[in-house]
Amino acid sequence: MTTSLAAAALRLAPAAAAGQPAGAIDTPALVLDLDVFERNLERMQQAADRAGVKLRPHAKAHKTPAIALAQIARGAVGICCQKVSEALPFVQAGVTDIHISNEIAGPAKAALLARLARHARMSVCVDDARQVAELAAAAAQAGSAIGVFVEIDIGQGRCGVADAGAALDLVRAIQAHAPLAFRGLQAYQGGMQHVREYAARKRAAAEAASRAAAVVAALAEAGVACETVTGGGSGSVEFDLAGGVYTELQPGSYVFMDGDYGRNEYRGEPRFAHSLFIASTVMSVAGADGAAPRVVVDAGLKSMAVDSGLPQVWGPQGRSATLDYVAANDEHGIVEPRAGAGAAALPELGSQLLLVPGHCDPTLNLYDDIVCIRGQAVAGVWPVAARGLSR
Amino acid sequence: MTTSLAAAALRLAPAAAAGQPAGAIDTPALVLDLDVFERNLERMQQAADRAGVKLRPHAKAHKTPAIALAQIARGAVGICCQKVSEALPFVQAGVTDIHISNEIAGPAKAALLARLARHARMSVCVDDARQVAELAAAAAQAGSAIGVFVEIDIGQGRCGVADAGAALDLVRAIQAHAPLAFRGLQAYQGGMQHVREYAARKRAAAEAASRAAAVVAALAEAGVACETVTGGGSGSVEFDLAGGVYTELQPGSYVFMDGDYGRNEYRGEPRFAHSLFIASTVMSVAGADGAAPRVVVDAGLKSMAVDSGLPQVWGPQGRSATLDYVAANDEHGIVEPRAGAGAAALPELGSQLLLVPGHCDPTLNLYDDIVCIRGQAVAGVWPVAARGLSR
Predict the structure, then answer these.
(1) What distance in Å separates the CA atoms of residue A337 and residue B186, rounded to the nearest whole number?
(2) pLDDT tens per residue across span A88-134
(3) Which pLDDT does position B291 carry in this prediction?
(4) What's the distance, CA B269 to chain centroid?
(5) What is the chain B residue with the closest CA to A156?
(6) Burial bucket for residue B39 (CB in 10 Å: 0-12, 13-18, 19+)
(7) Searching chain B, which residue's CA lies closest to the CA of residue A15?
(8) What's domain A35-258's superfamily in CATH?
(9) Are A56 and A248 in contact (CB under 8 A)?
(10) Cα–Cα distance between A51 and B328 in angstroms, integer?
(11) Closest to A105 in 3D by CA, of B285, B226, B193, B124
(12) How many CA atoms lie within 13 A of A348 on its CB side?
């Protein structure tokens, strides 16, 4: 055996290199179909443009500067991030307008935000006067200006103040601090994004929008204009664009369309397609002749989030008609033939299987890079630079 | 605004630095209580020593070279990894004996394993003759020697051959290749680790051990000695140590004891305690005066795995008697007072809350480092160097 110096020089090869066939990607790996991805970006931007609503896509879904720049190149006014630390690699990649669509607490986070605000136009949400005071102190310290949105709860029951009176109090608190600028309201109802039935989702969106509109009107009566009303998501974008309340939308998952969003019923426009896959490899078929035919793939809980269900097996014609991913262990996935398909449908040892993740946001957060493919060839590798930046 | 050059120089501060109070850790962060952790390590090593069984702890649980070295310093013979790429940072940190407790498929993985085998004593599992051929070719190419275990299925229904005849065929295949050395059997029953009731788990362990013993005996009859029988886990270690079949145990989670293992009923020895926590911060209390009292913390699906349940809120006296973590969104957690506790039990905006993750292995895989505390002070930060290495 050689010295540890020689071991230190060992490097893990990238999962893929440009020009390789997609079938040669080392697995597990995140794979992005660029043709579908670009079509998703264009459809969303065109829909926003037609409605005269600004698009500020959510980078929490992709955590990837190359994707943010592709969104901005098509007309997005900037991006959202959900955490302050998440914004750092986007600022470094040249994104100049970032909204933190979330409250923050603690001096470390306010200080980082104020530092970032020296390099980019930054804004953040508040739902408590103590957050306002902490932001004002940090901005004064850093010599920067921070935009502030009052978040209102329009039915999710998570963050945000409950009514126009509380919102107005916060507007006055923001206006009392010179380094802070009141920018408007954030109104987001995450729960309704995943209401499956089209008509029920439409009703939920209308209800949420009417709650937001009531607060906007009450503030206007008190002499406070909301320059921006920001919110909305990939599941409700059709309704949000048409509702007349939002001046700016924050969808994230439309870029990839995960298994969860794929289970929604859609009727109107815009429509999006699955562009993101996990490439896995069949690494054991020893049980295939046994009582329960199955194969084992090398992608489990460390390669996908399962909070919104197990991944779907994907084939050349879309979702596999014969194979189901039925169980995830830490590093293993069990794939079985669907009832009626039989053991003959099972793939060979060493075969590559593509999977559609159930939930894209936390799945992206597991990978350091995305392998981009165009047709059946690897086009390049994009770093998921904000992976793990949850502070 | 300043230049992008200045933005490029921005760095995210570490979550904590040695000497700081634990309450000042920037969140979300993984926190390890070193006193409890060291006690867990010592209890396991002493139990193995008493039984005369070798301990080869599983590094898939911690992915942290500093922890592997602490295990080896106490007497562990080496470590297990579950993926070949996972082993790389351990080899680089000076671990010289690593078993890949899993099958691999594909030339990239075999080639990396063969390269690692030039720097450390490496072994891997097989359950198919094609894997043997791939390993032999890679070892010959790299000029290294690879130890090979035949994995047998003792009831999990995942990887491994079903019977002694198939095992013997694989032993013969291994013995036909000079760069490969047959080392013994791997026999692991993951499912029984999480059987809650003590007596039922004991029965399951006995059943699994008797299946393993039967294969060992059949191979011996055919003239094949198993130098090592490796397997076992944190939930069955008491039975595995006493069963007389395993020469080497592979427990991983005992280091941390996650929420899932904490729900098992234990009666015998050794016992382990929760040493691993997620530090979170209350970042919104806007809803606390509303109909359903709750606060929102900054740790959600990107800061913990929820496949084995939501985290438990932890207090100075152990599991909180008044607070429950009831829902995880991507970057938010909802914490409610337990029935009877009332809104007065809710923590203030900006408070730190410790959480016990439901499942340690995939939770570790989300973090780049672990903040170590001793008592109420930060003792240091350990890189989770194998995070994300799932290939």
Answers:
(1) 27
(2) 999 999 999 999 999 999 999 999 999 999 999 999 999 999 999 99
(3) 63
(4) 20
(5) B287
(6) middle
(7) B391
(8) Alanine racemase (3.20.20.10)
(9) yes
(10) 33
(11) B285
(12) 5
CB contact set of A155 (below 8 Å; sequence gap of 6+): A189, A191, A192, A204, A207, A208, A211
Task: Determine whether B19 is exposed, middle or buried from the number of CB atoms within 10 Å of its CB (0-12, 13-18, 19+).
Answer: exposed
Which CATH number among 3.40.960.10, 3.30.300.70, 3.90.1140.10, 2.40.37.20 corresponds to the domain A13-30+273-383? 2.40.37.20
- Phi/psi region, residue A232 (left: phi>0; alpha: psi -120 to 50; beta: rest), is left
Task: Please determine, for residue B344, whether its predicted confidence score (pLDDT) is greater than 60.
Answer: yes
- Classified as helix, coil or strand, A90 is helix
Chain B residues touching residue A307 (CB < 8 angstroms): 301, 306-307, 328
The pTM score is 0.97
Strands (E), chain A: 29-33, 54-55, 79-81, 97-100, 121-126, 146-152, 180-187, 228-231, 248-249, 276-284, 295-297, 312-315, 318-319, 323-328, 333-337, 352-356, 369-374, 377-383
Residues 6+ apart with CB under 8 A from A108: A391, B13, B26
Residue B312 phi, psi (nearest 5): -100, 140
CA distances from A144 to A139, A172, A181, A282 (A): 5, 20, 11, 53
- Cβ separation B128–A286 shorter than 8 A: yes
Strand partners, A296: A284, A334
The whole-chain average pLDDT of chain A stands at 95
DSSP H helices in B105-183: 107-116, 129-142, 164-175
How far B244 CA lies from chain A's nearest CA (Å)? 27
Q: What is the pLDDT of residues A300-318, one digit of tens each?
A: 999 999 999 999 999 989 9
Across the interface, whether the CB atoms of B307 and A284 are under 8 A apart is answered no
Sign of dihedral through CA atoms B388, B389, B390, B391? positive
CATH 2.40.37.20 spans which residues of chain B? 14-30+273-383
Asked if the Cβ–Cβ distance from A102 to B331 is below 8 Å, we say yes
For B142, list phi and psi in degrees, rounded to 5: -85, -10
pLDDT value, residue A9: 84
For β-strands B146-152 and B180-187, DSSP reports them as parallel
Any idea which residue has 């170590």 for tokens?
Answer: B372
Domain B14-30+273-383 has CATH 2.30.30.100: no
- Residue B27 is nearest to which of A298, A387, A391, comparing CB atoms? A391
Nearest CA distance, A103 vs chain B (angstrom) = 6
DSSP collapsed to 3 states, B199-219: HHHHHHHHHHHHHHHHHHHHH
B97-100 and B146-152 as β-strands: parallel, antiparallel, unpaired? unpaired
Q: How far is B50 from chain A (nearest CA, A)?
A: 30
Cβ neighbour number for residue A388 with a 10 Å cutoff: 23
Q: Where in chain A is the domain with CATH 2.40.37.20?
A: 13-30+273-383
Residue A179: what pLDDT? 98
Residue with the two structure tokens 């990396």? B112
Give, in degrees to the nearest 5, the angle at Cα B333 between B327 and B339: 55
Angle, alpha carbons A286-A292-A298 (nearest 5°):
50
Q: Which of A140, A92, A134, A81 is nearest to A116 (CA)?
A: A92
State which residue of chain A sits closest to B134, comparing Cα positions. Answer: A350
